[in-house]
Amino acid sequence: MKFGHPILLLATPVASALVWLLLHLARRRRARLTREFAGGAGRAWADPGHHRPRIVLDTILAVLAVGFVGLALARPLVFKQSEQSELQGLPYILAIDASRSMLAADVRPNRWVLTTNAVDRFLAEAGNDRVGIISFAGVAYLNAPLSFDMTAIRTTVRYLDPELMNDAGSSLASAVDRAGRYFASNNIPQRVVILVSDGEDLDGNLIPTARRWARERVKVCAIGVGTPTGAKVPLNRYAPNGGAARNTFGQEVISRLNESNLQRLTAATGGKYYRLGEKGEGLRRLREEFLKPLAESAAREDLQNYTDWFQLPLGLAIASLLARTLLAADTTRRPQPLPAIGSSLIR
Known about the structure:
Blueprint: E1 2-3, H1 7-38, H2 52-73, E2 76-79, E3 91-97, H3 111-124, E4 130-136, E5 140-147, H4 150-159, H5 172-185, E6 191-197, H6 206-214, E7 218-224, E8 231-232, E9 254-255, H7 259-269, E10 273-275, H8 281-301, E11 306-308, H9 311-327, H10 340-346
């Protein structure tokens, strides 16, 4: 439960205490005037004959009525538990490494096929999530903006191809920066990037970029693809065991999973790191341990997902006032003998 106007909760005890004080002072003043009219406190007829328990109960009911009215004005709200399953949606961007190192075959059949298959299964279970796609090698490209259309998003992923990327190298910083600029320009409140990569970064500007966007509430989660031992980077997907890519010194290029880069990235932005796994277990764990709790937290911050419950305290306030009226503490008198006037005249 939360309140639409929580500041009124602070004023409610003050108002209740003020009502109690005013009732108390009013009764003391009435008792003083009665004593003055009767000629002194020692006169038997100066006692108005009120029921002390009724007076106490009358005061309690008045204070409760004011307290319940204050509670109603504070607008109590209850989360819609029945619709909780429909509130798990979250906007996030999948940044997929499409550099040539993703063709390495240190996992079966290779990193790229394993990644796209796992991402496709992940998107099939996206529910009400809004997902965007960024692919990157040396430069990052926004392939699809945030969308509920999972069919279009999954089709976009299937059309990605490392061999069609014209920018050599791999820049994780460019992916983070492109996602951050998209979130900022579109004023997206929840800013989550899921980076799927082998962690190799030839830019060297990753952590400063990550920290800069972390100040803008961008959280980056990383999914590591590959193995620490690594494998040769093939010239193309059709020759994984044939020709290998070579560097400027003529040496065959070996690509290894760089978990250190990915872990530093997630630590800098408040995200989480997982290995992809043979069947995409990392993406499933990410959804259960990070995305779902974050989505529910975001849903609980949105007042549109709450039901007003001001009727309950308002009804209790009305009931307290009705009970006070029926109690009639100020008009009800207890039976008392009045021989004192006659006896005083005889004497």
